[in-house]
Every structure is written in C-alpha cells, then in structure tokens.
Design goal:
The protein is built from seven helices and no strands. The protein has about 200 residues and is mostly helical. The chain has a single domain, classed as Calcium-transporting ATPase, transmembrane domain, CATH 1.20.1110.10.
Length: about 200
C-alpha cells in the first residue's frame, strides 16, 4: 500500500520538527522520553495490520515503481501540516488554557497519538477518506489505540509515564484541534495529488 510508508515518514518528520522547535521556547521538556517512546509504541502498533488492508482499484491497475521524489514531497508536506497542529495544540494548552506542565504533556500526548492514528485513514487513499473502506483489522487496531490513548491518563499507568487526568476544559479543545487536523489534511491531500498529477503530465 503506497501511502503508509510515506505516512509514517511524514509523521516522524513532523514530530521531530515540532519537538525540536518547541523545545527552544520552553523552560521544560515538552514530552518526557518515556512519553515519546509510548507515542511511538502506540502509533506503530496499528502498522502491523497494514498487510490486511484493502487497496483502491486504481492503485493496482498497472505496475508502479517507488518514487523517492514523491516520498520526499509527501513527507515534507504532511509533516509540516502535522507540525502546524502540534504548535496549535501546545500554544493553546500553554497560552490560552494556561495548562500546567503535567496537563500540557498529557494533552500533547493524547493529541499526538489520536491525530497520528486517525490521519492513517486520510493518507491511505487518494480518494476522500470516507469513500475508501479500510480493512476490519486496520480499523479495529486504530480505534483501539485511540481509546487507549484517551484512557491512559486515568489509569494507574499515568503516574508511571508522568501523565495527569485530563480536564474537560482541555479535552474539548483537543478534540477540535484533531478534527481540524483531519479535515485540513484531507483538503491538502486533494491539492497535493492534483499538483503531483500535473507534474507527471508535464514530465511525459
């Protein structure tokens, strides 16, 4: 499935870019090392079900070759989109909601995992995501990870990883950010592929 390796690459690029830039302006680490490792573990888990996923017919109608230039452009485009919403999340937590350090880290953890999990449904297809049905294992794995990310701050594991219970005043804005991210990524995806198609047409 061509989109998933590029999705993972773009997500990693976006996370590293966000973390490095935000760290320059904060008196504390935006995420603890154990929290970063947990994000990687949770977001990588559903990737194990990629092999079960269905593929849109137009992606297998003819042989295709890997295009490193395409992967690079995809990585930068969607990585930067991810970073924009990371910045919105952290700025909102610190500047608007005046969240304490624990709330800020927990909020960014939840937003990072949920957004990275849901964005898979957008970038796995060139179609509008609601017109392309993922496999049941992939859907179940991603929904389970979203539920787990939301639940962890309320479990005994919270103290192990440095999380605190999320306040409703924090959860609702985070939900709005995730919704805006998924919607924005869908719109940018259409523009991105239209530009790629035009580029290929000029090259032939």
């Amino acid at each position: 499935m061509p989109s998933d390796p590029t999705e993972q690459t773009s997500q990693n690029f976006g996370n590293m870019f966000s973390m490095a830039l935000v760290s320059l302006f904060l008196p504390f680490l935006p995420l603890l090392p154990t929290q970063i490792l947990l994000i990687n573990l949770l977001t990588d888990g559903p990737e194990l079900t990629i092999s079960t996923d269905s593929v849109d017919p137009e992606l297998v109608d003819r042989p295709r070759r890997w295009d490193i230039g395409f992967i690079r452009r995809f990585m930068v485009t969607f990585g930067l989109v991810s970073s924009v919403f990371d910045f919105l999340t952290f700025d909102g937590l610190l500047l608007v909601l005046r969240a304490a350090t624990g709330q800020s880290r927990t909020g960014w953890f939840v937003e990072s995992v949920v957004s990275a999990t849901l964005i898979v449904f957008v970038v796995r297809t060139r179609r509008p995501f609601f017109q392309s049905r993922p496999s049941r294992p992939l859907l179940a794995a991603n929904v389970s990870i979203v539920a787990l990310a939301l639940a962890v701050p309320y479990t005994p594991l919270a103290s192990v990883f440095g999380f605190v219970p999320m306040l409703p005043s924090v959860l609702l804005p985070l939900g709005a950010v995730v919704l805006a991210y998924v919607s924005g990524a869908e719109l940018i995806k259409r523009h991105f592929y239209a530009r790629e198609d035009a580029h290929r047409a000029r090259s032939t």
